[in-house]
Design a protein that fits this description.
heterodimer; A: 222 residues; alpha+beta; 5-stranded antiparallel β-sheet; 4-stranded antiparallel β-sheet; 3 helices; elongated; B: 136 residues; mainly beta; 7-stranded mixed β-sheet; 3-stranded antiparallel β-sheet; 1 helix; 3% helix; disordered C terminus
């Protein structure tokens, strides 16, 4: 008796690869901002309530002052949360690139074209770097928490420029080496490929965006 | 007496799409608990182990000693690799339903003569001045 199972740890072709693919950004700034805002409001609400209860009033002793000083680290954490929320909130208004890949399925050793553009003004960006990265990600349990470690094993510069006419829109032919590892994904172990954008904006949070690429194992000769 | 099992494979590096031939021979095996052969890939390294069994076949041995040849068409992936955090290896295991595998043999799946080495690509030259990258 023989049994076999389907393995979904690596991507395969699901539809005909006829059209270029508009890649979706994998950064979730809006979601991150909402979570940070909620944490910030709850934390600072509790700390503010406690602080008002403990504010030293006239004719009170050192005990009340000591309680107030005890609150200082909590107030500082609250302040950091407010600043972090503002930082993430401002970065939502950064210019967002649109990235198009010439084909849906990428294979090691095969050529493809990446083209990008900024639909809104990129005038605030002073320099832009675009990289293709291969990462290995391992998650493991440590006590009651799950930790994830990431290691970049491949990086190729697509563009590094401070000239607006170069980075505002462009395209480049890319060929991954023939002996690189394909995308691999299980609950605890991943090999992922990204296109990363990093733009520097003076006096503003930097642009940081990431797009996931699906690199398939080479086709099997039939 | 526990059974003596031997696994023979012609190649240790198998290309996707190729037929892997495994010869299992046994002696002192109990006829009442049939031997089973299974093919797996699994991860090693820093992360918790991920594993997938791709095929299981019963030996259904009629004698205490004997041998059987199994064939398995190696799928397209995942390819074997060796990284700093993750490595992927393949294994043939033989055991009974009730017990842990009694015998296992490793092999690799890929197009070269050894697993893909993730660390062969240097990222140092591009790493400077890229602030979002946290090197492990």
């Amino acid at each position: 008796m023989t049994s076999s199972r389907i393995d979904s740890s690596y991507p395969v072709e699901e539809v005909a690869d006829l059209e270029p693919l508009i890649l979706k950004s994998s950064s979730a700034l809006g979601c991150g901002f909402s979570i940070l805002l909620l944490i910030s409001v709850v934390w600072n609400g509790f700390v503010a309530f406690a602080a008002f209860q403990m504010i030293p009033k006239q004719n009170v002793g050192w005990g009340n002052w000591a309680s107030f000083l005890f609150l200082v680290p909590f107030l500082l954490v609250g302040l950091a949360l407010i600043l972090g929320t503002i930082y993430v909130g401002l970065s939502i208004f950064n210019p967002r690139p649109i990235l198009v890949c010439s084909q849906q399925y990428l294979y090691p050793g095969e050529e493809f074209e990446l083209s990008w553009m900024f639909p809104k003004s990129s005038g605030r960006i002073s320099s832009l770097a675009i990289y293709i990265e291969g990462n290995e990600q391992a998650s493991y349990r440590q006590g009651t928490t799950t930790r994830t470690e990431t290691h970049v094993f491949y990086r190729e510069a697509v563009l590094e420029s401070s000239r607006r006419e170069e980075f505002e829109r462009g395209e480049k032919l890319i060929r991954l080496p023939s002996n690189v590892m394909h995308t691999f994904e299980t609950s605890n172990n991943k090999i992922v490929w990204h296109v990363r954008f990093h733009g520097q904006i003076p006096w503003w949070p930097d642009l940081s965006d990431s797009f996931t690429l699906q690199v398939l194992p080479p086709k099997v000769d039939s | 007496m526990s059974p003596i099992i031997n696994i023979e494979m012609r190649q240790r590096m198998v290309r996707p799409g190729e037929r892997l031939e495994v010869v299992v021979s046994w002696s002192h095996a109990s006829i009442s608990s049939p031997l089973e052969l299974s093919v797996h890939w699994f991860t090693t390294g820093k992360g918790s182990t991920s594993e997938c069994e791709l095929m299981r076949e019963s030996c259904e041995q009629q004698f205490e000693s004997g041998s059987k040849t199994f064939q398995f068409v190696v799928p397209r992936g995942p390819l074997s690799c060796e990284g700093r955090l993750i490595s992927i290896r393949w294994e043939v295991r033989v055991g009974t339903k009730r017990n842990a595998p009694l015998r296992a043999e490793l092999f690799d799946v890929g197009y070269g003569d050894r697993p893909i080495e993730l660390s062969r690509f240097s990222v140092a030259q591009a790493a400077g001045g890229v602030p979002w990258i946290r090197q492990v």
